[in-house]
Amino acid sequence: MKKFLIVTFFISLSWMFTGCRYNNVNVDNGIEKFFKENNISGTFALLDNGHTTFDIYNLERYKDSAYSPGATFDIINALIALETGRLKDENSIIKYNHDSSSASLKNVFEKNNDTAFASIAYSVGKDTLQFWLDSLKYGNTKIKSADEYFWLNDSLKITPDVQLGFIDKFYFSLFPFQKRVQKIVQNLMLKENNTMYSLSYKTSVHYDSKGRKIGWLLGWIEENRHVYFFVINAQGDSMTEAALVKTLKEILVYKEFMKGDK
User: Fold this and answer.
1) Domains delineated in the chain
2) Looking at per-residue confidence, does 71 or 145 come out higher?
């Protein structure tokens, strides 16, 4: 039997509900076992489309801990590059390593290719990147320079709370980007699509300035035309992207997803 605590208190979801509060949060400590079994520690949150249910594990880390977004920033990086015309679509070729290597946006997005995305950021330029971060209120909005991997080096930081709100708005194309641009990047996140459900997400694993291995996984699952948004933020010495995906799927099964009858 699932064990969780329904607590009535107010939690601020800073991205989605500016100036608002959210109550009746389901704190589900049963999720902890999936983190432990995969040798990681962290937080998980799941929000339904109607914002009527909100399940969470490790509330303190979820609300108050900020980390570099790592490769999850590829979403923003790709949106800006497409919106500003630096890239045309998912098949646009990115040259990197001083033009000695090249690959499509689709390829570098799937592989979390930081070097390629550094090339994209450099082509966009620091001022343009800063304009969009300020406009979107993405994390602390801090950039050291466009070619210094600011999404990895603890310059730019974001909380799991804001990441979840970000992915909610992104799914509904509510950002001030062209709808076409947002749809291209949404499609890049699709990992599984069958008659029972579709699953979209972006992963990231990187080291922070303190030498800690930090992981992210954020996205959404759709069943019967209903969408739920999720975020994992974790750390662990042996953590891999595969371990994050495994943790996610185990939690979703525990929450009775992936059967087509949610």
Assistant:
1) 1-64+160-174+189-262 (3.40.710.10), 68-158 (3.40.710.10)
2) 71
Q: Which helix (H) or strand (E) holds 215?
A: strand 213-223
CB burial readout 11-27, b (16+ within 10 A) else e:
bebbbbeeeeeeeebeb
Contacts of residue 238, Cβ cutoff 8 Å, sequence gap at least 6? 39
Render pLDDT for 52-73 as a digit per residue (tens, 0 to 9): 789 999 999 999 899 999 999 9
**pLDDT single digits (tens) 197-230:** 999 999 999 999 889 999 999 999 999 989 999 9
Among 78, 98, 97, 96, residue whose Cα is nearest residue 88? 78
Sheet holding 54-57, edge to edge: 5-7, 25-27, 54-57, 41-48, 226-235, 213-223, 198-207, 190-193
The predicted model scores a pTM of 0.91
> 39 phi and psi, to 5 degrees?
60, 40
Residue 55 β-bridge partners: 26, 46
